[in-house]
Amino acid sequence: MPAGASAGGAVAVAAESSVATRMSAPPSFDVADFPVPHGREEEWRFTPLDRLRGLHDGTAVPGGTIKVEVEAPDGVTVTPVGRDDPRVGRAGAPVDRVAAQAFSSFEKATVISVPKEAVLKEPVRVALHGEGGVTFGHTVFEIGAFAEVVLVLDHTGDTVRSANVEFLVGDGAKLTVVSVQDWDDTAVHCSQHSALVGRDASFKSVVVTFGGDVVRIHPRVAYAGPGGEAELYGVYFTDNGQHQEHRLLVDHNAPNCRSNVAYKGALQGADAHAVWIGDVVIRTSATGTDTYELNRNLVLTDGARVDSVPNLEIETGEIAGAGHASATGRFEDEQLFYLMARGIPADEARRLVVRGFFAELVQQIGVPDVEERLIAKLEAELEASIA
Amino acid sequence: MATLEIHDLHVSVETETGSTEILRGVDLTVKQGETHAIMGPNGSGKSTLAYSLAGHPKYTVTGGTVTLDGEDVLEMSVDERARAGVFLAMQYPVEVPGVSVSNFLRTSATAIRGEAPKLRTWVKEVKEAMQRLEMDPAFAERNVNEGFSGGEKKRHEILQLELLKPRIAILDETDSGLDIDALRIVSEGVNRLREGGEVGTLLITHYTRILRYIKPDHVHVFAGGRIVESAGPELADKLEAEGYEQYTKGGAS
């Protein structure tokens, strides 16, 4: 389908305003700098505020528990620190009130450091299991120069949580982050993922969202020097009643950097709502930039809604390339007919098509157990839709 | 002995302006081992006949019967028809992104045969069938119909035909858009299946060109939503010389 096309849902077109002017307040570490949102602000207009359980207006009182398990290979350090630690907040300040609330409310931040030049054979795994109640958090991953790391962030259980994550990717380092939101269907999770990509460094983020009542994630990238590369991939499966929102920003603030964004989602069931915002800014200084962003949605049943807003702001003409595409398609009856005309039963045909839709992104993960779990999860979601 | 019997078939399609009848009483019997060419001008309804037999949801059967060895085909779902032995080689097969040809072929062979083919013999079977159709082995790893040329799509359809071995093969304008080499290769594929004597073939075409490679036993002229003339292969020669004008002008519908 052509860019901006829509079926079974609505697709919004990028607003005329710039990324900066569309925010109701400039980024800040202090929650008091943000007015309580009423829902008509550009950054809140798709989000059901009444389901945020008070994360947005100060009425969410911390007191919940979340079990955290860190599996870190030798040489990796895990250190609790205060707000005053220079690494905390270095990749970027909170961009909305909920993220600022997390920053103002967490007790201790955690810094997980990988020394320079360390090439880790096993992933660093951080598993968070919500045990109910409101929680706030802040985690900084500091990847030393030329280190190579795979990081898996796993979210399960029930919680009402706002937590920010920072990735400080050293010069020449390679970081792959897989963040899996596999929450119970009651959970609320808001998180700002801010990456600061060093000179000639590579940052790959794979965001996988299945669970939760409301999940709202801001994957953001800025560059600390020239030659950096960012790949931002996402897979979501939005069911009945779920709200899953991914708001991306790639800030090309340095020359000769690359970024590639690809998010794909499937939706099924009444009131399933997926939101994808893809902002890319190419600043005057960012000559030689090469960027592309893509969002595709597959609407499996009636009643689901997609808002997909790609937005590209270019302040210099001296770039290698810039483009975006967004498309939302209904599950294609012609594909189903073709497969069934070859004897394949309807439910199996549907599985093939959906699996195929996600295949290229699943292959990007590069962590076999996460890939397998994702495929199993997709199968289970589809099973539920067929039943 | 497989026999497809179409009796007084009426089919409509829903459009914005209401329901339009496209097939207006088709009668045709195709027996195992026979090849029937259905020829007709554009818009005569011959592709509608093909898709209706396969069960495409766009078409509504409003009257008549279709049976395969006495079984009611119209009662069957699309996949049941395929498993009963009806195969439609499509004129415009759709892309299925992310699904490789090899996965697709194996999934459909498993469905049609009722059990998964043994891996080793299957790989060999596919490889040989692809060689006969002069297809690059790398083709198996491409996504179904994604970025295929017109010729590649048709070869892929005939590859499926050879592997799935239907009882009734319906070829919907398989010749259209093919150059002469591709037409020969595709026709040879159809002929290999016909040589087995176990398939009844319904060859739908606008042009007589393909009939030089695939010799029909019967030729039918389709106009205005039904068969208006039936004869032996000599009818194709007459159409080659005179065209369809006499069928479209005189109000054959």
TrEMBL record, chain B:
Q: Which GO terms describe its molecular function?
A: ATP binding; ATP hydrolysis activity
Q: Which domain of life is it from?
A: Bacteria
Q: Where is the ABC transporter domain?
A: 4-249
InterPro entries, per database record:
AAA+_ATPase (IPR003593), ABC_transporter-like_ATP-bd (IPR003439), FeS-cluster_ATPase_SufC (IPR010230), P-loop_NTPase (IPR027417)
Q: Which PROSITE patterns match?
A: ABC_TRANSPORTER_2
- Output the SMART domains linked to this UniProt entry: AAA (SM00382)
Q: What's in the keyword line of the UniProt record?
A: ATP-binding, Nucleotide-binding
Q: Name one Pfam family in it.
A: ABC_tran
- Which family does the similarity line name? Belongs to the ABC transporter superfamily. Ycf16 family.
Please report the name of this protein according to its UniProt entry: Fe-S cluster assembly ATPase SufC
In its UniProt entry, the species of origin is given as Streptomyces hainanensis
Gene name of this polypeptide: sufC
